[in-house]
Amino acid sequence: xxxxxxxxxxxxxxxxxxxxxxxxxxxxxxxxIMMNGFGEKDVAIASVKAxxxxxxxxxxxxxxxxxxxxxxxxxxxxxxxxDILINxxxxxxxxxxxxxxxxxxxxxxAINLSSAFxxxxxxxxxxxxxxxxxxxxxxxxxxxxxxxxxAAYVAAKHGIIGLTKVVALETARTGVTCNAIxxxxxxxxxxxxxVDARAxxxxxxxxxxxxxxxxxxxxxxxxxxxxxLAALAVFLCGNDASEVRGAxxxxxxxxxxx
Length: 258
Prior knowledge:
Elements: E1 8-11, H1 17-28, E2 32-35, H2 41-49, E3 55-57, H3 65-79, E4 84-87, H4 102-130, E5 133-138, H5 151-170, E6 176-183, H6 189-202, H7 206-215, H8 226-237, E7 248-251
Helix pairs in contact: 1-2, 1-8, 3-4, 4-5, 6-7
């Protein structure tokens, strides 16, 4: 039986990849969904609606606090409450520190870190009032370890884990929990482009390029799937996870075990 019937989830960056998988998984558990993102929204919305729940979309730019506030208000008007908040929106930029453009740094920090602060501060009062809520921040193994040329991303993801812990402590005596999920390599469309480029550059098959890419970091040699991450999110939303608070839960094929 669905475990989240009557709940509403706001999932940022949910028109593709991990965010879409999260939206679909929560919808299958009966949660109504407010979607957000710049991907193919019509296709994404249809896939969530197919789960038989109410779905809406808000196109807030996650780098703009005023638009985030408007999205929170719109979700509460449409569904009556926000019970589950999945902070998934994110971007990436790669360069050495001395070459990192200032505007790219600001954009990565704004979307990958500050947006989660703003969504949380706007959604939390209602969760506290109802004494139930689930906040799940999609961090990364890069919230736990670093890689070269990813200064802004690593800084933002470390910050997300810090924010997660603070919110967890501030809500520890309530029915609201806050946790972070830290994926390793996930075969999203963005990563598939890296695989395709490597296959062409090195003159190898796509499967060989996948294995070469993932094995550089993940001892399992396997990608994490969006659906696996979504299943973890569903667990964290359930009653069995009510005392999981402030966790940075890695799903990374052994990356951070090294």
